[in-house]
Fold:
Amino acid sequence: MAHSLKILGRTSSINVRKVLWTCQELGIDYVREDWGIGFKPTQSAEFLALNPNAQVPVLIDDHGVLWESNTICRYLIGLYQRTDLLPAEPAPRARVEQWVDWQATELNRAWGDAFTALVRNNPDGLDATQIAAAVQVWNEKMGLLEQQLANTGAYVVGDEFTLADILIGLSVHRWQSTPMERPPYPAIAAYYQRLSGRQGFKTFALDGHN
Structure:
């Protein structure tokens, strides 16, 4: 099943890399164009016609245009019928999707202030007390993941690698790479090593990304 596939977005974006890693797991080819900070502006009329939110990534294929990284990943997995990454049956699928949604709605929000202050060095950033509080919030959310991984002993949902591990794996790498104090979470450490054996993680996390 071959599809013409174009991805708009810079590889420095963690959300773009979610899609690229998904493509790698699916073994599909694509054309990527650099858009966003340092490249073509997402505020341009051309880009806004594709995504009115002015954010990357955007996917363009034979079926049209999609934005929102987690949705794009779900779409591609469904298109290529990879039920190992996202099950077809409602209950197993929901168990994967609850962690997919948790990454977007809980974990993604938790790192915002700390990552901006400690990595992006935002000149309008937080003071030391606020940064410490932001780091604590981030670590607390990672503590929930620690509990889950301690229960499964392997991947986020269970014994098998799924879409949840692509999205959360990149998030774990961001947490691991940010210069801050982190609790000694052994299950996350083991998970990080497990992911390090996958080519997609090597390319889109370990290879100089944050």
The longest strand covers residues 5-8. The helical segments are 14-26, 45-48, 69-79, 90-118, 128-152, 163-177, 186-195, 199-206. The domain at 6-80 is CATH 3.40.30.10 (Glutaredoxin). The CA atoms of residues 107 and 144 lie 10 Å apart.
